[in-house]
Amino acid sequence: MPNEKTVMTRDDALKQLNRITRERAFGWHVGSDQLIQAGLEALIAGVESPSLAMLAGLLRSEEPEAPTLFDQVLEELGLLFHPPADRRAAKWALAYWVAGQTADGSLDPAVGTHLIWADIAYDLGYPDELEPLVHCAHSLEVWEECWGVSVEELKGEAVEAAKQFLSKGSAGEAGGTTNCSFSPPGLVAR
Prior knowledge:
Layout: H1 10-25, H2 32-44, H3 52-56, H4 66-77, H5 87-103, H6 109-121, H7 131-142, H8 151-167
């Protein structure tokens, strides 16, 4: 029996557009083909925007037009996002966004905590607020089967660390307690 792909709902399509706009705003590469595909999926899901059909119908030879049309669609839908101009504030905004994606299951916990560790915490000087997520990232990165704890348990702890980080509010209010209770050999939890 053939495997049928789940049809994307309108809300799923808007969530995907929102994710892609943030990825692009934070400097991650999103190819024109992905922008066109997201436009097509949104159109099929019932999202309405004057420029959406133009984006979804771009041919391979027209791919260079995709970023401009994608931004136009986002503007029409009220989804256009600009990160803070201040570099540190932008990194904090990215941390909250990645933690949110990790907490809600949109992003694998190992990937989300690694992004926070490698792309955010380093640039911010490893602030205490991000320490629990960095600790979880390190545990997931160096995990070995002999530890007696499963990767799934560590991922669950990473999701909880992300949720606690988000619940703390602004960066200035966040605390630095460790949520990943397991410390791999050679790593002491603070």
